[in-house]
Amino acid sequence: MAQSEPESSLSFERVVFFSDAVFAIVITLLVLEIKTPHLTDHNEAALKHALFELIPKFSGFVVSFLIVGMMWIEHHRIFRYINHYDSGLLWRNLLLLLCVSFVPFPTALFSEFFWSRTAFIFYTASFACVALAKLWVWRYAGSKPSLLAPNVDELTVKRITRRSMAVPIACVVVMALSLISIWIAPVGFATIPLIARLLDPTRTKLKAAES
Known about the structure:
elongated
């Protein structure tokens, strides 16, 4: 059984700051996959053609940026309700960061093989892994009242758990759409906010944990 570690407000903030840094680095790495075109013929037509060929990379970057950014917002949100940590939470959070750090590779693969159903499903599965890892972090924290802020009740824990299922469910929808058409499947990621609202139909503001 994981034992709680001696902690201070600063040591807990280090957990959050380290997580934020990993998310920031991953988002930065995403754009590095977009290379400036190297042209042999320096004319407008050649440049337009080269930029057109970069559209899959632009698309991969934008989609990945938005989803990783959404994951960061959710990570930030759940850590508003967590005031303490133990080694179990640290290891689960580290697994989440491992999944996040892997995202640039499937993004690059999908951008390079934009037409490939295999590449797209692999790409989508990477986001599902990130979301499930985040859900594992929250489920663990939610099962240990000693890790949560004093004013976090059971209803709040359940609501955040339901909302955390939005991305995994959306990924299943997107994978199903890819079996119909690889070109329309990415649009399925736009259903994430809608699914989150459906999972939390009351739409009332969750109580923010005060530090």
